[in-house]
C-alpha cells in the first residue's frame, strides 16, 4: 500500500483550493520537488474516495483521477447522474467533475485510486500544459461522455494484471516519497503504462472526434504565448473575440479551472523550471513569469506549492 498522503499536511499531494458557486469544494494538486507527479492510495471498507476530503460531501478536483474497483461496489453520484460500480470497473474522473456518494454514506469496496495533474505525462512545463488535452493517453478524460465520470469495464481475465500494474505504481510513489533516486521517472513510466491500458478500454475512433476543442485550444495558445505579460480574462476573451463570461464558463466546465487559475499554473510551471535550472534571483524569476512584485510572487508561489520559491529551489537541488 502506498503511504497515506495525510501523514503530514505540508506533504499532502492535494489541497482545498476554493468552493464553487454551488458550494462544492474543489481540491488542487500540490507538487513537491523531486517527488513523482502522481499520488496513489488503496482504500477499503467505507472510506472517502479522496483521503483529503471529508466523506460526507461531494467534491471536485482540478487534477485527474482514476479509480479501479478491485473488489466490492456501491453507488456514486457525479453531477446529476448516479452510477452503479462494481468489481472490475474503472472510474475516470475528469478535472472539475464533482463526485460523491449516492445518498447517505460513502463508497464501499476495495479501490486503488490514482491522482495526477494534467501535465504529468509530458513534464511539468508551460508547453505540456498547452497540449495535455490532445495527448492520446488522456483521451478517456476529454472524449465524449466526460460531462460526468466515465465508467469503463476491465475484462475479468485482465484484472490481476491491473492489480499488479497499480501495485507497481504504488511502490514507486512510495519510493519517491522517501526521496529515492529514479523513483519519479519510474512512477511516470508506470502511470504511462496504466493510461495505455485505460485508453484501450475506450472506443478510440468515436472519442477522437472530441479531442480538438477550438475554444480551449485558442485560449491555451493565448496563455502559453502571453502568460509573462500583465494578462487578464478580458484580454484573453478579447483576443478570442468572445465575451469573458463565455470563455470562463467553457474553460471551467471542460478543465475544472478558470482562465485565471490556468494563467497562474502557466506562470508557476515556468517559475519552477527557472528555479530548478538556473541561478537567477527569486525576484528576477518572478518578473520573468509575470509578477514584478517579489513579495506578491512569493505569496502566489507559496499558496500554490506550500513553500517559498527559495525553498523549492533548495529542495529540488537536494532531490
Question: What does this protein look like?
Answer:
This protein has 319 residues and is of the alpha+beta class. It has two domains: 9-208, Jelly Rolls, CATH 2.60.120; 214-318, Arc Repressor Mutant, subunit A (Orthogonal Bundle), CATH 1.10.10.60. It is built from twelve helices and eleven strands. The chain has helices at residues 126-131, 139-142, 159-177, 183-200, 204-208, 214-226, 233-240, 244-255, 259-277, 282-288, 294-305, 309-318, and strands at 14-19, 25-29, 39-43, 60-61, 64-71, 73-78, 81-86, 89-93, 100-101, 110-116, 150-153. The strands form three sheets. The chain has a five-stranded antiparallel sheet, covered by helices on one side. A three-stranded mixed sheet has the order 1-2-4, with no helix packed on it. A hairpin with a 5-residue loop joins strand 1 and strand 2 (25-29). Helix 3 packs antiparallel against helix 4 (183-200) and helix 9 packs across helix 12. The longest helix is centred in the middle third of the chain and has 19 residues, at 159-177. The radius of gyration is 19 Å and the shape is globular. The two termini are 23 Å apart. Mean pLDDT is 79; it is low at 1-10, 47-56 and 204-211.
List keywords for this structure.
single chain, 319 residues, alpha+beta, Jelly Rolls, Arc Repressor Mutant, subunit A, three-stranded mixed sheet, 12 helices, globular, disordered N terminus
